Amino acid sequence: MRALEAISIRGRLTLLYVGLLSLVLILYAAGTSAFLFRNLREQLDNRLNADVETIEGLFAWDGPDRVRLMTENLDEDARDLQPHYLEVWSGTGAVLYRSPQLRSEDLGPAPNGVPARLGARSVQLAGGTRVRFVGRRHVIDGTPIRIRLGLSEEPLWREFWEMVSVLAVGLPVALLLIGGAGYAVARRALRPLDVMASRAEKITADKLGERLPIANPNDELGHLGRVFNETLARLERSFEQLRRFTADASHELRTPLTAIRSVGEVSLQKNGDADYYRDIVGSMLEEANRLTKLVDSLLTMSRADAGRIPLQPTEFSVLDLAKEAAGVIEVLAEEKNQTMTIDGDPKVFVRGDRLILRQALINLLDNAVKYSPEGGRIEVRAGASDGAAFVDVQDSGPGIPVEHRSHVFERFYRVDKARARGEGGAGLGLSISQWAVEANGGRIELQCNNGPGCTFRMRIPKAAPLTQKHRERTS
Ligand code: ADP
Question: Looking at the domain assignment, is residue 206 inside a domain?
Fold first, then answer.
């Protein structure tokens, strides 16, 4: 088996093919030879039976213990009876006649008890000749005799061995030719694999745009090539995303770092008082804060991508979740004199990871505060519709133009890049919220009218009905 593994697929295919074919051909040749041999022997037996019928009437007594073959009565056609091995025995087991071909040999022991007709048998004479003979009981002038008539089997064996030697020479030649042809066919069929392999060798991380050539999309190799190309396309997309993510992340990290450095450099060139330096340190801390938030978001994203954030689902009221998240953001809303209202159905329970869902909602509320003007209004509603729980966050900001709506959940996407950065956003909040809600089996929808303000809706799976009923009864 190990030795076979060292051989190429085409070599193995050819070996298997030739092996199976040899087996079939050998069985076929053995069957044909056996059939031929049987046929030849049957012909010989038929001839012996016909000849013994002709010959048995040609014997006459030639004395008390001898019989004579009346060859003078033989016609032209029966002359070829001469090469027969002929033996005549008396009823008591004495030899009455023996043809010249037999010389002193005999065709076996005295035929005592031999039935009236003896089926054909084969014997080997002392000289080595193989003889096929038949036996008959006959009566001359009231005295029973036994006749044995034989013919040499040599012509039969000669014909048989001729056939066997033709097969013995022909079979290996045929197998050699078929093996060669099989190898050529296997080589041709597998050639696209070589082409694919050499092309695949050239594909590197920088050349993920390359694709394998597909000779025939309908065969197995075509299928393999297609699957490989699809994998390459997926890899290429992932690489591209990774590259974009790294570039965007570095860019976002550089901005606050540059700000910290330039504020520091400028302050060093001036001789300010304590208040001046307190302001400088304050704005540096603000940038450092922004940097920390950004790094936290990046870490969350990469841990989420790697599937390393384990979910700890529990059941809780969706209105409680809304109140908790609003409590965190309230301070920011107050700073902008915004009013934040929260209402909803306290009996709607959801199942999910409370901390992660809370963070998702905080991101939505943070945006609502960020993008709503001073003195604006933010409404939070919790409830259930279409079999799922929901939390709506409606703001009174500028809304999101139609062409940006499908992109706002993408990483680092900002509608108004300059403004958003000023407000501290790196374009990661919504993509983190989307991941968090989807990881908990829900989804986020954006509902915008053409007027100002927009509503983000988090839909979360409800808790199991039994729990739901139990809670309703106990609340
Ligand atoms: P950011 O941290 O920049 O706010 P997000 O992923 O949370 O990033 O949002 C992506 C972009 O979507 C924002 O930069 C902003 O342009 C837009 N956006 C998000 N929420 C709102 C909203 N409530 N009103 C208007 N625009 C919004």
Answer: no
